[in-house]
Amino acid sequence: MNNRNAGFQSQQHRKRIGRRARGIEAVDFFNLLTGPELLETTESHLPEHRERLYPPTVALSMFMRQALNQDGSCQKAVNGWAAQRAAEGLGVQSIRTGAYCKARQRLPVTMVTALTREAGRLVSARARVPWGWRGRAVKLVDGTGISMPDTPENQASYPQPSSQAQGVGFPLARVVGVICLASGALIDAAIGPHAGKGSSELGLLRHLDAAFSPGDVMLADAFYCNYFLIATLIAAGVDVLFEQNGARITDFRRGTSLGQRDHLVHWPKPPARPDWMTAQQYAAFADDLTVREVKVDGQVLVTTLLDHRQVHKRALDQLYARRWNVELDLRHIKTTLGVEVLRCHTPQMVEKELWVHLLAYNLIRLLMAQAAIAADVHPRDLSFKHTVQLWTEWTACRLNLAADSATLFRLIAQPTVGNRPGRLEPRARKRRPKPYPWLKVPRAEARERVRAYGHL
Q: SS3 string of 331-344?
């Protein structure tokens, strides 16, 4: 009897989700989250809940709407929800944000992370062979830092840099992502403190081994050119292409020559065992490994693609030049989606907020991949920000994606981004900021000074 009741409740639950999916017109991303490809993942991670004003799927959709809106406040999200209900002829009793904020807190982070990874997998699986590199999946890896509000809870989990005075700086987290080169989709990510044991980019990357499959190629900068990482990836059947680490000396007079500034060389295992590694793990690594070093245009590259007849060093140089895409992808996440400075005041909500932004990023990449297939172009030629703007306006007008997806995809694919290899721009601003003095004491102390003296 219990099994029959559970099966009946699950069936009714699925029907309720389906009815919402068919009737949706305004809540951003709800029709994508409950579409046929993501419905199973969405349903399997939905928590037990009553029929509240903000059920989990609606709360998550509104949360992602915040991620795409320049005004990412909760009040803006609730105002949009109220306007939608009024347009549909439904009642609106209150626009207070308390119920919505509690609904966000009830969202399980496991649901958001699972949807993000599944969306990334779907986009990567849709990648056509011409989008890739020699029929192989290339995974980009890089890390970045994000800031958040200065609260005691955030400071405890993500301490500010030690170079900043107490109460003056902001909590800082480090994020490492694995991104598909062909489509730009984020396959997986890890977050941790900016400093401390196991918080380096290499330490966070060790939690992302499930993002790689045999036959993949990992593409990253010189920081990842590490003996133990390369040995681990070789054992997993993954090839690598990195720039040479500046601490390592390259001598092309040694090793087996494959051509001019192109050779095979044996790297001995470092004699010092890293702190994060056990003695058994250290002993399991081989005493040396063979890598290929090439020098092209003054740059030394390190790879495990050892056959110079199959992969010429010029092809390695061209592939490594595409590593710059990960910098653009991280810029889209941090700047276009506003992840550079998060808003939540507790570590649990900070982690959830980050993953909601990453889920929104992957769903935008899903739209771009569909548009690229329809227009027979490369998704890297399409504009991420244009897609965000168009989708935001599309849903604001309550247009149904399923009813006229061809028009949306055609408009997404119309403008293309410029191909500007070797472009250089100074990292500087001409317009000066307003001349406010720097706050060099905690804000509460600054208020007391102003109250006592009329100024800081």
A: HHHHHHCCCCECCC
